[in-house]
Structures are given as structure tokens and as C-alpha cells.
Amino acid sequence: MIAAVNPELVLLPLVIAAVCFDVFCLVDLVRAKQVKYLPKWLWAVLICFVGSPISGAVYLAVGKDQ
Hints:
Elements: H1 7-31, H2 40-49, H3 52-63
């Protein structure tokens, strides 16, 4: 017999991972002395509100000043 799985419980780890990644990106952004291409406040808005993990990955790949 196959047990029924609650869909919310399946998605919960993904949501937690996405939120943790966003927090990591925001902390990195706050600690950065300089960022590329956009002002810090706009990177923060993108990380928080636009395609959650995707925008954080774009910040780390493109916007972070090494």
C-alpha cells in the first residue's frame, strides 16, 4: 500500500533552501564594499522579489565584485 504524501511537506525543504540562499545573498551584499552593474539597493530588491534563487545566483555570478 502506498501512503499519501502531503504536497506541502514535499515542497517545504525547497522553500527553506530558497529562503536560506536569499539570506546568504543578502548578507553577502551587505558586507560587499562594491558591487557591479547595479546599486546595492536594486540588487537587494531583485534578490528578494524577482525569481528568488535565480536572482541570487545572478548576483553571485555577475554582480559580486571579486
